[in-house]
Amino acid sequence: MVTAVSSEAPNLLFTAVATIDYSVCLYTYRSSGWQYINTSSFTDQVLGVALSYIYNESIDAYIVANKNKLKITTLVGENKIYRFYSMLKLDRIDVFISDLYVADWNA
Q1: Residues 90, 67: contact at Cβ < 8 Å?
Q2: pLDDT by residue (tens digit) across 51-74?
Q3: CB neighbours of 13 closer than 8 A, spacing ≥ 6?
Q4: Which of 44, 88, 96, 102 is disulfide-compatible with 84, CB 3.0–4.6 A?
């Protein structure tokens, strides 16, 4: 439960002192040359996201505004990060969002 937060899991017990930091990171091929500046950076990208995840205020607003467009690919179920990596290889998405530790472990 590395990425659990109280707003997503209000019935869990949380420590008073953080034991790890949650880092929202964007993943794509280094060779793409793409860089994130702000949500307008997604203009020419197909973004992979997990259904009902909370990333940060600006990215969450972008997802809501574009959820019914071809610019967002939403996954549900198990092994989402592994599936995002596979979708990158198949050119079905251009970039995906994950926590640093979760994506690195799945890599």
Answers
A1: no
A2: 988 888 999 999 999 988 889 999
A3: none
A4: 96
